[in-house]
Design goal:
The complex is a heterotetramer of chains A (about 325), B (about 325), C (about 500) and D (about 325). Helix content of chain A is about 70%, strand content about 0%. Chain A is mostly helical and about 325 residues long. The N terminus of chain D is likely disordered. In chain D, β1 and β2 form a beta hairpin. Chain D has one domain: Orthogonal Bundle (ABC transporter involved in vitamin B12 uptake, BtuC). Classes of the chains: A mainly alpha (about 325), B alpha/beta (about 325), C alpha/beta (about 500), D mainly alpha (about 325). The complex binds adenosine-5'-triphosphate (2 copies) and magnesium ion (2 copies).
Chain lengths: ~325, ~325, ~500, ~325
């Protein structure tokens, strides 16, 4: 009955739909933070500073790719092991590269494989033993931390390849570091894959109703496992880029990224219960979180109040659109 | 060993061993702590060869204070004679220390001083470290300069102590501190925070920082192309020394300082523990506030001795911290 | 005489105007039918009375007094109680805990269950002849079958001693015996002066139980009639208007059963199923009859590879196959329209188009990987047109559709896969007469193309109308087979009842 | 309706003692795990049953035990509380400040801890129940707020707990360690709670929120109440920590949120909500605490210990989850 749509109404309705879209709100908030930042501490809105923040956001953003897929895949999906997996990825990469460009490729490949194995274990436990993702990945955090400790003997060694450091730290075209371009390519690719590939639609199908997906011939378990594999792989990739940022590695390099990846996904408008959302929103969510942290760190404010403020801002942001269905509709 | 009489810290009435030593460390995801533990193990092995000690019990896992209390109780339950502890809190372990001491166990705190009067603190003074670093920094930026800081973490005792040492120095030199950044003792965070601060305070004369953050801050300053105009407080750690050396080698007149916070204190503390277990009495003139041994700071790394220092450690991992351990003989000097 | 009058009810859901000034007036002591096609707004109207939906406008009067109902508790306060179309039992609580939920006796917050348990016991005793064995106050509700759950839902509400009682498709999952008991209890209630609103798509139930009936269509009142002055044709005409199409036995030649069966199952074993064998020939509709919950659904999901089952042999058009999962069954040309469309058939938050695409997505994709947006849209549109699915836009979430239209979406996604064998599990449950006729027509179309169909239905009339053969199941076994002209409503009832007489349960 | 005939169904009635002996499968798993770790502990630690050992072991269990019961109430109600740890920290520093080391003010301190927990719980409950934010992300945000607030109240570790509390916590009452009695108190409190209408409603809401709403359960109030009750238990956990440490620390309890969730799962409580008992969570907390003790007494090399404990916990959780699923059939 598409024909029945009246031609006059849409513009207003379309605007409403856009303005209430989480992605739009999140993007508006990101811009607002930069503007407020520029007012409060001049220089915060400068081109190079914004580029710098986008660069820092790219680590969170890339680690959150897998988190997006995992949450989209439903079944209370969440990956609490991303932070620790990213750290392990960086540790392995640093040990292999050890400051030499000739081992760059190997230094990327091996950690990514390690990530795939971690994701596979997560996925198998969740898909076959049906352990709730929250506890499975929480438990794996301990295991991965243990592996990192055993592997390093308690002291991480090695350094990133200069080419990697250059990619992250040197400014390229338009004074923008290469890592930001890598992220942009990933944003386009992941968004496109989710919306326009059979694999992407299957993730949405699995995320919105697993029983129905199974009965429609969508391989549910395979999709769930792949989601967790993707999560760990992108976590490792993020960890490797973070290694490029710091050049040397340490045992808790990326640990604190876990919950921010979840927050980025939710701020980006992906439904926590799965089946609805996408990566573009997550990427903007990562920008919002990074801009906010940066703004707070430049303000002369005790750490206690910074912590409180970031919590309150997150709540306000989610209150604008992250609300769940009302019981009395 | 027999129960302790009260009085001076950690007095044990002279057993003959071999002794069992317990170690409690509640933060493992740290290269600094690993280096500390390794040094303890090495020194322990030397004593073991001499038959002075027989067993080393390690409680080494990430834990909060409550977890560390459990670690110490585990050590008590395993019948150790002495506990060397890197405490998570200056005060919150007091009650469990009392439990240990009342069972005749010698307790020594390293890296971070505790309040319990019966526990012997062994280590450098974090406040002195802060002051030493600030002295060099103040002279580098000059009187009346404006700076920002990237420090450890709010509410963290070492952060507070270092600032307590630095603050009067900066005040004396009329140096204005525009804001305090929170670097979370973490290189990546330090780098990000320094980048943010450089954007909003583009005219600062220096960034005072220390520990792992220093390398991150220097990277941020380098990225902003300001190594010649912004002074960076440094750290005696291989990663930082490498960047520093590279800068100097490339002809920059970049200058910095690395005050040494030696992880080897743990091994030094083991010497103290053995002496106490063997019933030796501390020379009270070398004890501060009744229960603390304050080890002298080593000569800091500056541009003057950078090349020599670097030559000695250049093949270590980036996270390696410049170290020093007192020998058994040196420690004996602290006893009557 | 006391009455509950609700007038001028408006309710809009996004782009859908569910109710436009609808009204309903129930007198005490009467059973008032509320009829209308799927999506006409019956449930919405009921939920407004129950406090579960916030209307855009409404006037509610009880005994002439204006009433505001802000939530289910307000309704309960005025002793207006509802059985929702969607079951509202808590799976992990016990039968007794569910029956008193929300009305637990307590002193200063501490539960005092003694007295209430006596009432619960009495209610369970009353229901016991049709409840199924082994169900006591401490049975957990989660594992019970839909019919039992629906009865418990009814019992829960009756225990609250309503003055006005709303029953929204409360008989949809019930078997004949259960319906009879429910009717008897409703009549007792009305004799005591309770006013009852009764919603059902089964005309014979309405004609049997109701005194008056209000018919709504597209959220508007069409008529209120005295049921004794009217007949089924009239009610259907009021409900579906000129679109009315009698759902009679279509002219369909009896399929030949000489050739190769399109599906042949030998010795299928599964939980709730013992050694079932059957053949389906091209163009044949094989019905599954008997009391509900005797293994019919398990048989369908077992064949489809959707639940753990072992078979000695399954052949599709003579080729031996093994279905370990639905994917392999689909590849062999099977399709399953599951019994519970909301939880098993649809991705409610996703678009209509994606729901229709899901089974055959890979076929239209470039290289099996990249979605061709045009092809997707064309495929979905073709099905929407062919099945006359009433939608806003293809991109709307499927949750915006009414029950019947949602069911058609489930059918549509399977038609795209051009199946050889279609397994239908109660495909018209909760579907209105108009849509029902359309679904029947679709099934007949399929058989005309040589598709074999297995049809499980809780509705004997439906089996009588559609099936060429009916296999009657009891406790997971095929105990009887009715064929050709023997497939009549009466024979089906008899088959089911004779079996239930064999049951050792005391009556 | 006519008076019902007396029935046989009524003969087996609530309150009959047999009921307490019929455990579900997952309860047996929890009990089995508890027995195994206790046996290992006893075997490896010959002093286990000495008064000091019992006192000290239970003294360290108690805080996590209360936090686990708190988490259990929320999880059974279909929620999740990532802020438990910082509620504990906040309640402890508030109580510490209120008591100011005065033995005469212990009672006010106890009250202050519980009230603080209740207020924090009410904030969580309001955000999850009334504003309807997704619990995981909402309590992640409030976690920042409470953690910051704790830092505001007590900017750095310090302060003295009245000696009556610390010594009382380590003493014996009629030969039984007080710390053991306190763990028993947690069990008794939960048992009392489970007899209330509120807890029945919490289970109903956790089982199916909209069904509970339709069944006259005041869902929003119940959700709020579940967080408030959890807050009160967190307040008790704070008191146990104060008594155990004898001093204040704004960072205490940082690992408690995730540990309490692991404890809840080990205790056979489904994260999906509606099922399980807080008493299982008590057992789960004790199991978790004892695993680390066992590993230390076994002398596992420290670099491998974290890996070993991670693997053991994942395995135990898997066992517990798989068995509790079998229950459902
Ligand atoms: N929560 C909702 N959100 C959006 N639309 C809704 C919602 N609930 C109902 N609708 C729409 O409102 C209309 C009326 O639905 P309602 O459930 O009242 O119909 P009904 O008469 O009970 O149908 P059925 O016989 O299929 O149960 C339908 O178009 C339906 O799609
Ligand atoms: N029980 C009722 N009786 C009459 N009119 C009603 C009733 N419920 C809702 N309405 C109509 O719907 C409109 C809004 O209803 P209501 O009073 O429930 O709003 P509200 O208080 O904002 O809702 P809520 O209590 O859910 O916050 C009113 O203007 C009224 O016309
Ligand atoms: Mg309806
Ligand atoms: Mg209102």
């Amino acid at each position: 009955m598409t024909a029945m749509q009246s031609p006059a109404a849409p513009t207003a309705a379309r605007w409403r739909a856009i303005v209430t879209d989480p992605i739009f709100i999140a993007a508006a908030v990101a811009v607002a933070i930069v503007l407020v930042g520029q007012l409060v501490s001049p220089g915060f809105g400068a081109y190079s500073q914004v580029v710098g923040m986008v660069r820092v956001a790219s680590f969170l953003g890339i680690m959150a790719i897998g988190q997006t897929i995992v949450i989209l895949s439903g079944g209370d999906g969440i990956d609490l092991s991303v932070g620790k997996t990213a750290t392990l990825g960086a540790i392995v990469a640093a040990r292999i590269m050890d400051g030499s460009d000739s081992r760059l490729l190997l230094g990327i490949l091996v950690p990514v494989l390690v990530g795939a194995v971690i994701g596979l274990v997560n996925g198998l436990g969740i898909a076959y033993l049906r352990i709730p993702p929250f506890v499975m990945t929480l438990g794996m955090t301990g295991v991965v931390a243990g592996i990192a400790l055993a592997y390093t003997g308690g002291a991480a060694a090695g350094r990133s390849a200069p080419a990697l450091t250059g990619l992250v730290n040197n400014r390229g075209l338009f004074d923008v570091p290469g890592v930001v371009y890598v992220w942009i390519v990933l944003i386009v690719a992941v968004t496109w894959l989710l919306r326009r590939s059979v694999a992407g639609w299957n993730i949405y199908a699995v995320g919105s109703n697993r029983v129905a997906a199974n009965l429609s011939g969508v391989p549910v378990r395979r999709n769930v496992i792949m989601a967790y594999v993707a999560s760990s792989v992108f976590a490792c990739l993020g960890g490797i880029l973070l290694l490029g940022y710091t050049e040397s590695v340490f045992l808790n390099l990326a640990d604190s990224y876990t919950l921010p990846t979840v927050a980025a996904v939710i701020i980006g408008g992906t439904l926590a219960s799965g089946g609805v959302g996408g990566y573009l929103g997550t990427a903007i969510g990562a920008l919002v979180l990074t801009f906010l942290t940066s703004l707070l760190s430049t303000m002369n404010m005790p750490e206690s109040w910074r912590t409180i403020t970031s919590g309150v801002v997150l709540l306000v942001l989610l209150g604008m659109y992250g609300r769940q269905r009302k019981l009395r509709t | 060993s027999a129960p302790a009489t009260s009085g001076s810290p950690a007095a044990s009435s002279g057993g003959d061993g071999p002794f069992t030593i317990g170690v409690s460390n509640a933060f493992v995801a740290s290269e600094y702590r690993t280096q500390m533990i390794d040094a303890i193990e090495q020194t322990f092995d030397e004593y073991k060869a001499e038959g002075v000690v027989d067993k080393l019990v390690m409680e080494n896992a990430d834990a909060d204070v409550n977890g560390q209390i459990q670690q110490i109780r585990n050590l008590i339950n395993q019948g150790v004679d002495a506990i060397i502890v890197d405490p998570n809190s200056a005060t919150a372990l007091s009650a469990v220390f009392d439990e240990a001491i009342s069972q005749g166990i010698t307790v020594i705190a390293i890296d971070q001083a505790v309040d319990s009067p019966d526990v012997l603190n062994v280590g450098i003074s974090q406040q002195d470290l802060g002051a030493a670093s600030a002295e060099w920094f103040a002279s580098a930026v000059g009187d009346g300069a404006s700076i920002v800081t990237v420090e450890g973490a709010a509410g963290n005792p070492a952060t507070d102590a270092r600032w307590a040492g630095a603050e009067p120095v900066f005040a004396e030199h009329n140096i204005e501190v525009l804001t305090h950044g929170d670097g979370g003792w973490d290189q990546a965070t330090g780098q990000t925070v320094a980048t943010d601060l450089l954007a909003t305070y583009p005219n600062v004369d220096g960034i005072w920082t220390y520990d792992g953050m220093a390398q991150g801050v220097l990277r941020a300053v380098e990225a902003a192309d300001k190594t010649d105009s912004v002074t960076v407080g440094g750290e005696a750690r291989v990663g930082f020394l490498r960047m520093w050396t590279d800068l100097v080698d490339s002809g920059s007149d970049f200058a910095s300082v690395g005050v040494i916070n030696p992880p080897g204190t743990g091994a030094t503390a083991l010497h103290f523990a053995i002496n106490l277990l063997q019933g030796k009495e501390l020379d009270q003139s070398k004890v501060t506030d009744g229960h603390s041994i304050i080890l002298p700071l080593d000569t800091p790394v500056t541009n003057d001795n950078l090349a020599d220092t670097w030559a000695g450690v250049s093949d270590q991992a980036d996270t390696y911290v410049l170290d020093s351990i007192l020998s058994a003989d040196e420690v004996a000097q602290y006893f009557q | 005489m006391a009455s509950l009058d609700i007038t001028g009810v408006d309710k809009r859901y996004g782009g859908v105007q569910a109710l436009k000034g609808a009204s309903l007036s129930v007198a005490e002591g009467e059973v008032h039918g509320l009829l209308g096609p799927n999506g006409s707004g019956k449930s919405t109207l009921n939920k407004v009375m129950a406090g579960a939906v916030r209307p855009d406008a409404a006037t509610i009067r009880l005994d002439g007094q204006d009433l505001r109902i802000h939530g289910p508790q307000d309704a309960h306060h005025h002793r207006i109680e509802s059985v929702y179309q969607q079951l509202s039992l808590i799976p992990h609580l016990t039968v007794a805990e569910n029956l008193v939920l929300g009305t637990e006796a307590a002193r200063a917050g501490w539960l005092t269950p003694k007295a209430q348990l006596v009432e619960v016991d009495a209610m369970l005793e009353r229901l016991s002849p049709v409840l199924g064995g082994g169900i006591g106050p401490r049975t957990r509700v989660g594992s019970l079958n839909p019919g039992t759950k629906q009865l418990l839902e009814f019992a829960k509400v009756v225990l609250r001693r309503p003055r006005f009682l709303v029953l929204d498709e409360a008989t949809a999952s019930l078997h004949r015996d259960q319906v009879a008991l429910l009717f008897a209890m409703v009549r007792e209630l009305t004799a005591e002066g309770v006013g009852v609103v009764f919603v059902s798509h089964r005309m014979e139930e309405v004609l049997d139980l109701c005194d008056r009936a209000t018919i709504i269509r597209n959220g508007l009142n069409v008529a209120t009639v005295d049921v004794k002055d009217t007949d089924e044709q009239e009610l259907v005409r009021l409900m579906v208007g000129d679109l009315a199409r009698a759902a009679g036995r279509g002219e369909r030649p009896a399929p030949s059963r000489d050739g190769q069966p399109v599906l042949s199952v030998r010795g299928l074993q599964a939980e709730g199923l013992a050694d079932v064998s059957l053949d389906v020939h091209p163009g044949e509709i094989v019905g599954l009859g008997g009391l509900q919950g005797q293994g019919q659904s398990e048989l369908l999901t077992g064949i489809f590879g959707a639940s753990p089952a072992q078979a000695e042999r399954i052949e599709v058009a003579g080729d031996p196959v093994e279905f370990r999962n639905p994917r392999s069954a689909i590849a062999a040309g099977l399709a399953l329209v599951p019994g519970d469309r909301a939880s098993e058939g649809l991705y409610s938050v996703r678009s209509i188009q994606e729901n229709i695409s899901t089974v055959t997505l890979g076929r239209r994709a470039r290289a099996g990987l990249v979605i061709d947006a045009r092809a997707e849209k064309e495929a979905a549109t073709s099905q929407v047109d062919a099945l006359r699915i009433k939608i806003g836009a293809l991109a709307d979430a499927v949750s915006t559709l009414s029950g019947g239209n949602a069911q058609k979406v489930v059918v549509a996604k399977w038609l795209l896969s051009e199946p050889r064998i279609v397994l239908l599990d109660d495909p018209t449950k909760g579907v209105d007469v108009g849509a029902k006729a359309e679904i029947y027509a679709i099934i007949r179309d399929l058989t005309a193309q040589g598709v074999g169909v297995i049809l499980n239905s809780s509705d004997d009339v439906e089996l009588a109308e559609l099936a060429d053969r009916v296999l009657v199941l009891y406790e997971g076994r095929i105990v009887q087979e009715l064929e050709g002209t023997d497939v009549t409503h009466d024979n089906l009832v008899a088959a089911a009842l004779r079996i239930s007489d064999d049951d050792t349960k005391e009556s | 309706m006519t008076t019902p005939p007396q029935t046989t169904v009524g003969a087996i009635r609530d309150g009959s003692w047999q009921r307490y002996l019929t455990f579900s499968l997952s309860t047996w798993v929890t009990i089995g795990l508890l027995i195994v770790v206790t046996a290992l502990n006893v075997a490896l630690q010959p002093t286990f049953f000495t008064t000091y050992s019992l006192t000290s072991n239970f003294a360290t269990f108690a805080p996590l035990v209360f936090a686990a019961v708190a988490q259990a109430v929320v999880v059974i109600g279909g929620g999740l509380d990532l802020s438990i740890g910082s509620i504990v920290a906040l309640a402890s520093v508030v109580a510490l400040t209120v008591m100011d080391g005065e033995p005469s003010r212990v009672a006010i301190g106890v009250l202050a801890a519980i009230v603080t927990g209740v207020i924090a719980g009410a904030i969580n409950g309001f955000i999850v129940g009334v504003i309807r934010l997704q619990p995981l992300i909402a309590t992640f945000a409030t976690n920042s707020v409470f953690a910051g607030a704790a830092l505001v109240v007590l900017p750095k570790p310090g302060g003295m707990v009245p000696s009556t509390m610390t010594t009382g916590y380590r003493s014996l009452v009629i030969g039984i360690p007080v710390s053991v009695l306190i763990v028993v108190l947690a069990i008794v409190l939960y048992w009392l709670l489970s007899r209330t209408r509120l807890m029945r409603h919490i289970r109903a809401v956790g089982g199916d929120r909209s069904a509970a709403f339709a069944s006259l359960v005041p869902v929003v109030r119940v959700q709020m109440a579940s967080y408030i009750v959890a807050g009160a238990f967190a307040g008790l956990a704070a008191l146990a920590i104060l008594a155990n440490t004898g001093s204040g620390d704004p960072f205490v309890g940082s690992s408690m949120a995730l540990d309490s969730i692991a404890a809840v799962v080990l205790g056979g409580i489904a994260l999906a909500g509606g099922r399980g008992s807080g008493i299982g969570a008590v057992a789960g907390a004790i199991i978790l605490a004892m695993v680390s003790t066992v590993l230390s007494f076994m002398g596992v090399p420290t670099t491998w210990r974290q890996l070993a404990s991670g693997v053991i916990i994942v395995a135990a959780i898997a066992l517990s989850v798989v068995m509790s699923r079998k229950d459902q059939r």
